[in-house]
Amino acid sequence: MANCFFLLVFIFCCILGITPNILACIQTERTSLLSFALAISSPSSLNWTSDDCCRWQGINCDAAGWVTRISLPSKGLTLKQGITFPSSKLALENLTHLAHLNLSHNSLHQSVASLPLSHLEVLDLSSDLLSGELPELSLSSSIQVLDLSYNKFTGPIPSQFFRQAGNLTSFRISNNLFSGSIPSSLCLDSSPLISVLDFSFNRFNGSLSGGLGECSNLKVFRAGYNNLSGSLPEDTYKAAKLEEVATPGNSLAGVISDRILHLTNLAILDLSVSQLSGVLPQNFGNLAKLKFLLLYWNHIGGSLPPSLMNCTNLIELNLLGNEFHGGYFNA
Question: What pLDDT, on the 0 to 100 scale, is given for residue 327?
Answer without folding.
Answer: 59
